[in-house]
Write a sequence for this structure.
């Protein structure tokens, strides 16, 4: 098998080598594909502080539209993804409002929460330039309703002005009907219901047989003891003939269901259950011709058991419902929520956790895959919290145990360290020393779930996922070898579903290096072949290996789409051909892990990648020069083409690229091309020492924090990373080196030359 494998490699190399030789006489440079500019649709939200938004509102004369959301709110996410993105919504709001998104969990959000008394999410506020509320929407409207309410706010017919007109005595029928709608939209359903009953008291009950008034009854009347409700029940057959059994039955169910919840009152801070009153209501209800009477009574009994803290009764009633065939996932999910919040009895919690798991498994059989996956995850999360109540604490941080064994121990120490990568720098999180038999055990408090590095004996390293599951890693170790040979080695990571993803990623990286080495050895052993041809061939082979790796990563991205750690795979799929898969997986992750920092960071990085595509403006930054007398960034070179090189003193390939940059500088520096090197060195002394050694005749700066911020801005993970910007500061070339850089500069310089014309005499 090994012989066949080598023959295959040699044959591939032979074909590519021949192809390279034959193509030297007629070489063509592939032109980058010109992507279409994305047409921006949907609402554009203001980027800045709340005070800056107010200032912008005063400056432009536009009122403010503010989306009050939380990171855990599912309707908030749906609103952002499905409504705010509509072109017609974006067109209206972008032209008329300063649009602000406010996370109500932040310090600024909490302040605004108090000011505007936000009680549910999402809440959408319409504000004037002084921040005074003119209108509000509580809940997640569709695009049509959102536009309708925005028009109300613009025209001055919103919540605040309607309240004022009602207080001043306006009782016109048209106004009353619109006012009830405004109150309902604003989350004041009780007030709108009271006003509706007052309004109906001025009308003859027979008006309810007219569609206009029946619709008001359906929407706003909630009191089962109201004259209107009694009239409809008494004449239900007539109403069924008019509006259908389904519509009338649903409304009567809602009325009598609401009536069952009136028997709990708080007196002097103590809850009191009017059991006699409730039982009388039950007896009267059983005599009524109302659909699903049993459900109404059962729901109410469970509610009163919960309020009284009788969780055994609550669970017993729930079990009766399940045995009777209860199959509403949302209802059962709410049962779990209530037990999780109010019950401390672990026996009860365990039984309800089993309910959650039972219904979670049933979700796999439902037709709507997206909604089912979301429900399944929500049920499993509640089940986990029921079994582990400590996870309800927002300050909860899991502690995981990392175990393993070092095969070859060293007399100089056998330290195991956990490292967190920040850019190109690494920070030690925790450490331990292996025992005499090579085994080790390290307890790690996970402040933030994500990818960490486990290091053995200062050299062997492997990435793992730290979440809420224990991890096991065995290391080969270096032993007592005088020289530590750092070569690629596969180290297996075990521990939970997320580490299954990391293990696959580690294996694929190891295999990729092996494959590249297998290609490289026969290429460079070819006698009589010029080095330039070998380099061309290795470039071609590198593309083959890279494509092969991406294909395998694409498979794992789809295979592990429901696991948080899959973001590590997605981060490596950066080509346009992977966009659809990446977006599909990201949608699954956002639904399943709405509070995940790893998912949030990946999404932010992806958005940044979109910003810095070719044709986009290069992000601005300012870093100090070697003498510390000034700060420079790409924005300081506008008016010239700019070659911007990200490098470091410790990076061999970076230092190897400097002669090529000097060659380009010598040829193009006097042709309108500027050069700018940005070091991501951690050590200022090492940077300045390298500057003295390399003697680069162009501007130099060193990015603080080992380039952490500029790496996020420009989304690179390897150096040297060389960009070319046009005279306006737009990115026109990425990751260009050697001949590719020279070709690009030649193209730009030639394009900028003034064109001459010949005049016919």
């Amino acid at each position: 098998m090994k012989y066949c494998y080598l023959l295959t490699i040699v044959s591939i190399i032979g074909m590519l080598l021949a192809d390279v030789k034959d193509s030297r006489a007629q070489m063509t440079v592939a032109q980058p594909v010109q992507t279409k500019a994305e047409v921006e649709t949907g609402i554009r939200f203001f980027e800045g502080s709340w005070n800056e938004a107010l200032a912008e509102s005063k400056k432009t004369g536009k009122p403010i539209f503010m989306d009050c959301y939380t990171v855990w709110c599912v309707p908030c996410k749906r609103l952002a993804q499905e409504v705010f993105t509509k072109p017609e919504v974006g067109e209206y709001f972008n032209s008329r409002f300063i649009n602000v998104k406010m996370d109500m969990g932040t310090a600024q959000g909490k302040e605004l929460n108090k000011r505007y008394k936000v009680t549910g999410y999402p809440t959408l506020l319409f504000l004037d330039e002084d921040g005074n509320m003119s209108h509000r929407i509580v809940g997640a409207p569709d695009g049509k309703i959102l536009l309708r309410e925005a028009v109300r706010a613009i025209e001055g017919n919103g919540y605040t002005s309607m309240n004022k007109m009602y207080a001043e005595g306006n009782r016109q029928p048209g106004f009353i009907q619109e006012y009830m709608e405004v109150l309902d939209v604003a989350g004041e359903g009780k007030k709108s219901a009271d006003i509706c009953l007052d309004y109906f008291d001025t009308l003859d009950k027979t008006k309810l047989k007219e569609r206009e008034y029946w619709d008001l009854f359906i929407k706003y009347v909630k009191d089962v003891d109201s004259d209107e409700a009694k009239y409809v029940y008494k004449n239900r057959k007539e109403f069924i003939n008019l509006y259908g059994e389904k519509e009338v039955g649903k409304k009567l169910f809602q009325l009598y269901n609401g009536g069952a919840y009136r028997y709990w009152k708080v007196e002097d801070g103590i809850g009191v259950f009017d059991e006699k009153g409730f039982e009388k209501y039950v007896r009267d209800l059983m005599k009524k011709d109302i659909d699903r009477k049993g459900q109404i009574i059962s729901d109410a009994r469970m509610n009163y058991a919960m309020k009284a803290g009788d969780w055994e009764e609550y669970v017993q009633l729930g079990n009766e419902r399940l045995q009777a065939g209860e199959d509403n996932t949302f209802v059962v999910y709410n049962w779990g929520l209530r037990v999780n919040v109010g019950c401390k009895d672990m026996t009860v919690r365990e039984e309800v956790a089993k309910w959650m798991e039972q219904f979670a498994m049933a979700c796999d059989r439902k037709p709507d895959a997206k909604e089912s996956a979301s429900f399944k995850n929500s049920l499993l999360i509640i089940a986990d919290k029921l079994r582990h109540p400590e996870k309800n604490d927002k300050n909860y941080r899991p502690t995981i145990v990392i175990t393993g064994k070092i095969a070859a121990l060293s007399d100089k120490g056998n330290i195991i360290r956990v490292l967190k990568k920040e850019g190109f720098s690494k920070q030690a999180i925790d450490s331990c020393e292996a025992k005499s038999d090579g085994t080790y055990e390290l307890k790690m408090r996970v402040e933030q779930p994500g990818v960490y590095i486990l290091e053995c004996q200062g050299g062997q390293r492997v990435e793992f996922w730290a979440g809420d599951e224990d991890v096991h890693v065995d290391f080969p170790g270096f032993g007592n070898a005088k020289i530590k040979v750092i070569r690629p080695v596969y180290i297996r990571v075990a521990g939970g579903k997320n580490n299954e993803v990391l293990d696959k990623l580690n294996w694929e990286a190891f295999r990729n290096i092996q494959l590249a080495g297998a290609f490289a050895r026969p290429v460079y052993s070819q006698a009589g072949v010029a080095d330039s041809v070998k380099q061309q061939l290795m470039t071609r082979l590198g593309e083959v290996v890279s494509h092969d790796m991406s294909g395998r990563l694409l498979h794992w991205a789809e295979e592990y789409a429901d696991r948080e750690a899959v973001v590590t795979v997605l981060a490596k799929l950066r080509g346009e051909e992977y966009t659809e898969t990446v977006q599909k997986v990201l949608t699954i992750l956002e639904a399943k892990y709405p509070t995940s920092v790893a998912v949030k960071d990946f999404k932010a990085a992806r958005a940044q990648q979109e910003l810095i595509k070719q044709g986009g403006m290069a992000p601005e930054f300012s870093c100090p020069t070697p003498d510390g007398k000034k700060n420079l960034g790409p924005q300081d070179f506008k008016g010239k083409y700019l070659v911007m090189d990200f490098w470091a003193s410790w990076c061999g390939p970076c230092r190897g690229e400097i002669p090529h940059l000097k060659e380009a500088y010598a040829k193009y520096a006097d042709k309108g091309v500027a050069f700018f090197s940005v070091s991501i060195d951690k050590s200022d002394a090492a940077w300045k020492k390298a500057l003295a050694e390399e003697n680069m005749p162009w501007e130099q700066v060193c990015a603080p924090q080992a380039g952490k911020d500029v790496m996020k801005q420009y989304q690179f993970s390897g150096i040297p990373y060389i960009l070319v910007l046009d005279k306006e500061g737009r990115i026109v070339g990425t990751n260009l080196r050697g001949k590719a850089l020279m070709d690009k500069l030649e193209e730009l310089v030639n394009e900028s030359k003034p064109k001459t014309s010949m005049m016919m005499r």
Observations:
- Residues 1-13, 15-39, 755-761 have pLDDT under 50 and may be disordered.
- The chain is about 50% helix and 15% strand.
